[in-house]
Amino acid sequence: MNVAIWGTGLLADELSDEIEKNDGIEKDNILFFCDNDSVKQGTTFHGLRVVAPVELKNTQVDYLIIANGYCADIRKQIKKESLISDDRIVESGFYRQLLYARTQYFKRYGKKHGNNAADDSGQSTVIYTAIMGEYDDLADPLIVDENIKYICVTNNRDVKSDVWDVRYIENENLSNVMLARRIKLLPWEYFHCEGLNIWVDANLPIKADLREYAGNYMQGRGILCFPHSERCCICDEAAAVVSHRPDIKRDVIIQTAEYMKAGMPLNFGLYETGCMVRDFGIPMVKKLMQDWWDELVRYTYRDQISLPYVCWKNNFLPDICDQSVWWNEWLAFNKHKNDKC
What is the pTM of this model? Predict the structure, then answer.
């Protein structure tokens, strides 16, 4: 991709270093830096020219990365001056997550991603989600295919849709959080699973054909995940959870310690679980999901900690992609209405 970076300060300096430091991964082509400071315009930064923002109108830029602390003001300027369309703007934090995902992909496969171009268009596909209580609103996909089943399982009778097949259930003596996890992990208990089954968190609206995503990245293991956007070890994930969820601190520490005691290695891998593609026709996939649920019941609902453990325990590695779950061509991102998980 051809990218431009808005900013010539510390954020832009760190981002440029990060783009250049990783050998082997796919690297985007930085065309130039832009800055409102007329003194900097016409100089160079990291060996590239610094231009006025108006240059964005005259150059084919796939994405503009904002590496500046005044992101909201810059977005307003871009819109006012019609410099580049909003869907081609990304903040540096999201772009760095993409770089991290590419690095994890290269570590796993030893090469940059090449389009597998598998054709899953004729395969039966179910895309499903769950909304418990008022945690999220249900957004209709921006692209709807009549050959895909869209299922939403919910205990909220106010959830309605002309696209999703909304199926109402009761809480089954589980909390809203645990019930949503059970639907995600064991969907065959709630509807008939056939072909590809794609779980998508309700706060990740679908904006493109997820079968294309699956076809590009599935390599036969039966599970496809986005790599975690910042970490690759359950110990680091546990530390992050403890820092902002002190109410489950003790349980998370005990859980992680038990996994390490069992022999689980450091940096075994960590996955975003907001979007998962699975083929439940593969027996190991169903076993992994049942084992995963058992760990949630045994310890905590923090499924990103337990998934790597059950993978290690079963000598299994899911397929991964080189994309960030928070910024990619298939999914958008909305904040949870009540983000306590």
Answer: 0.90
